[in-house]
Write a structure and sequence with these properties.
The complex is a heterodimer of chains A (187) and B (123). Chain A is mainly alpha-helical and 187 residues long. Chain A is built from 11 helices and no strands. Chain B is mostly helical and 123 residues long. In chain B, 82% of the residues lie in helices and 0% in strands. Chain B has 6 helices and no strands. In chain B, helix 2 (32-48) packs across helix 5 (67-85). The chains are: A mainly alpha (187), B mainly alpha (123).
Chain lengths: 187, 123
């Protein structure tokens, strides 16, 4: 939020202009500090409104179309690979995992070459939702933090996004496992 | 014909899941990492409710290659592990199911970092 907007915002909130506030200068220090407190009180609704006005409007339809085409295209490519592996007599599970690994490898390669960023900017959620989004979220901070060292730079920051994904995935899985175990015990 | 239909279904379902995420990004203030976490947890929930398997049978890679599939695999892995190992499986099943993708991302990510020059990200 710009500084001028903030001042306007405070004026609107307290209903005081510059002149009126100069008058306030004559009032006691106690009164003034009370007034300041009141004028600086954080109005969440008004703040969100101002924030919404300042944010750039993204063309929703264009974004959704790009996400649909690129995301669908990645899934189509994956399905074609999957069927190829099945026809090579790979078992179902292994074929699926191999497809994921290939997509992750391609993402790492394109990210390292600096191509993935521009694809991602165009596609939005189209590259985010397939496993490419997870892969990029791992590879990208790894590359960016190389200058901070291999252990506390790359090693730590590589989990910036993969960490939350693994944590919440594994945790909700464990909760489900506990419930399922109790279910098996009782029935 | 079956091949063509399978590819089309993967395209449509995969695309639709991406559009849903795009709507979440544009219309709410959810950031991409939150979307990833949301999809994984949603996938685990679908798997726990027994909905993931029929969904995958219908959409193929349209769902299995997404983060929803990642979560669904975790739930399936946990179920199998609990059936085989009892309560211990609740802990071992999830990471086992996620092992392939996670290890691939970590290893390729590290290699990419080693081989690249580590320029700061353009914003």
């Amino acid at each position: 939020m710009k500084k001028s907007t903030l001042i306007l915002h405070i004026e609107a909130k307290t209903g005081k202009t510059k002149e009126e506030r100069r008058e306030n200068g004559k009032k006691s220090a106690l009164e003034r500090s009370a007034l300041l407190k009141k004028s600086l009180r954080f109005d969440k609704a008004a703040y969100n409104r101002t924030l919404g006005e300042g944010a750039p409007r993204s063309p929703l339809l264009r974004n959704c179309l790009a996400a649909f085409l690129v995301g669908g295209g990645i899934c189509l490519f994956a399905e074609a690979l999957f069927r190829l592996f099945l026809s090579l007599a790979l078992p179902d599970k292994m074929a699926g995992q191999t497809v994921s690994v290939i997509l992750i490898f391609l993402t790492a390669l394109l990210t390292a070459l600096g191509i993935f960023d521009s694809i991602g900017r165009f596609a939005g959620a189209g590259t985010l939702v397939p496993v490419t989004g997870f892969a990029n979220a791992v590879v990208s901070p790894a590359i960016d933090t190389k200058s901070e060292g291999l252990v506390l730079g790359v090693g730590a920051k590589i989990f910036t996004v993969a960490g939350p994904v693994l944590l919440f995935g594994v945790f909700s899985g464990a909760v489900y496992g506990l419930l399922y175990y109790l279910f098996l015990l009782i029935f | 014909m079956d091949l063509l239909f399978g590819l089309l279904k993967a395209f449509l379902f995969g695309g639709a899941l991406c559009v849903l995420a795009q709507l979440l990004i544009d219309l709410t203030r959810l950031t991409p990492p939150r979307i990833l976490v949301l999809y994984v947890v949603l996938g685990v929930a679908l798997g726990a409710l027994g909905l993931y398997r029929p969904f995958r049978a219908l959409a193929g890679c349209g769902v299995s290659v997404t983060l929803l599939g990642f979560g669904g695999n975790v739930a399936e892995g946990v179920r199998e592990a609990v059936e085989a190992q009892g309560l211990l499986g609740a802990l071992t099943g999830g990471l086992t199911a996620a092992a392939g993708s996670s290890a691939a991302a970590l290893c390729f990510g590290y290699l990419a970092a080693l081989l690249s020059r580590g320029k700061p990200k353009r914003l």
